[in-house]
Amino acid sequence: MLLLQPDGTLQPSGRLCYSLTYFGTANGMCARAHRVRCTLDGKDSPEMAQVCDVCGKRVSTGSNVSNSYRHTKRTFKPNLQRVRAYVNGVPRRIRVCTSCLKAGKVKKVVSS
């Protein structure tokens, strides 16, 4: 997650993420979660995660409700856009949701 600084730059917040390790046991496959520190370059985070780099908005789950009131599982994905923005004063390509773009939380790079 990136934090908007008073000077208009974005700084990584160093939030904690979870990484899953799968291993086999006598009963089948098991998973163990490990806490890792997320970095902006994505070395410790899952690749291509549907997460906004500014606000942390991510995929949420819910239900489709039919006319007969049957519920089926579904996912709600954030509207993420890849933009070039200044991070620590350096232009980088980051994934930002449209609500952060609309609110002006990102200083985009202007190509000339």
User: What assembly state would you assign to the polypeptide chains in this entry?
Assistant: single chain
Strand content: over 45%
Overall SS class: mainly beta
SSE ordering: EEEEEEEEH
What is the CA–CA distance across the termini? Answer: 28 Å
What low-confidence regions span 5 or more consecutive residues with pLDDT below 50? 42-46
- Give the overall shape: flat
Spatial strand order of the main sheet: 1-2
Put simply, the count of helices is 1
Calculate Rg over CA atoms. Answer: 18 Å
Query: Overall pLDDT, averaged?
Result: 78
Largest sheet: 2 strands, antiparallel
List how many beta strands DSSP finds: 8
Helix content: under 10%
SSE topology:
Blueprint: E1 2-4, E2 10-12, E3 16-25, E4 28-37, E5 60-65, E6 71-76, E7 80-87, E8 90-97, H1 98-103
Antiparallel strand pairs: 1-2, 3-4, 5-6, 7-8
Describe the structure.
The protein is mostly beta strands. Helix content is 5%, strand content 48%. The chain contains 1 helix and 8 strands. The strands form 4 sheets. The protein has a two-stranded antiparallel sheet. The protein has a two-stranded antiparallel ribbon with strand order 3-4. The chain has a two-stranded antiparallel ribbon with strand order 5-6. The model is unreliable at 42-46 (pLDDT under 50).
